[in-house]
Amino acid sequence: MEKLSPGLYIVATPIGNLGDLSPRAADILSRADLVAAEDTRVTAVLLRHIGTKRPMTPYHDHNADHVRPQLIARMATEAVALVSDAGTPLISDPGYKLVRDARAAGHAVVTIPGPCAAVAALTLAGLPTDRFLFAGFLPSKAKARAETIAELGAIRATLILYESGPRLGATLAALADQLGDREAAVTREITKKFEEAVTGTLPVLAARYADAPPRGEIVIVVAPPGDAPPASEEDGDAALAEALTRLPAAKAAGEVAKRLGLDRKALYARALEMKQN
Ligand code: SAM
């Protein structure tokens, strides 16, 4: 077997179905000098599946700062593969600092792309895919979660969130409370035997899961905000009254027309009327 050139190899692994391990990922894993794994017991099962045994070292949130310099040093002469328990390393998993430091040390950094629960969920949800925002896990404390939802809710993009079964009901309730009746999908056990995608509005999904926490791994996908409702005559009057405190009638009408999408001529006539009264 030809030796791999030294450097860092970021290897995506299956998120459930072992058949999703790419031939290239299997090849790199069988030839790596060292496999840095989130949990070496989990990765040992994968390596057994492809009929190989490689030296492994744990690399996870609790030891990363300590282990990273040693891994960086070894990359000078050895091929180090980084894997997480499932899916793509670095995505809600450790790794970005390893990539950063490997690059800074001048080592080669190679990616072997593959399964990622966020993207797989997006493909199942049937919601717009042209613009999406992956936000990982929401904070578990109610106040921090509400602040994060408020921030995410203003973004014109489909939202992708990771979640666990026990927390799903509370998270959907908070999303429904703050984002209203947006369409959403709860995707579960992707690529596994009980894969499913349950779609509906956030309030409907919140009611469904309120007292029935599902088993398994979950990704929530939420549609982007709809178009704002058209501005009413009252909205126009209020905006015009405020603009007239700063601007002459023509300019005020122009500004409000642009901002609220209303007819400029009608607003100008209304502005003159308002000035007379
Ligand atoms: N790096 C991984 C990836 O590329 O998807 C994600 C790791 S993150 C620590 C684990 C979370 O991913 C789970 O809590 C769940 O939200 C989601 N997840 C992983 N596998 C999944 C699957 N088969 N079905 C649904 N969600 C999954």
UniProtKB/TrEMBL annotation:
Residues 8-203 form the Tetrapyrrole methylase domain. Residues 231-275 form the RsmI HTH domain. Its EC number is 2.1.1.198. The keyword rRNA processing applies. GO terms for molecular function: rRNA (cytosine-2'-O-)-methyltransferase activity. It is found in: Cytoplasm. One of its GO terms (cellular component) is cytoplasm. Catalyzes the 2'-O-methylation of the ribose of cytidine 1402 (C1402) in 16S rRNA. This is Ribosomal RNA small subunit methyltransferase I. The gene is rsmI.
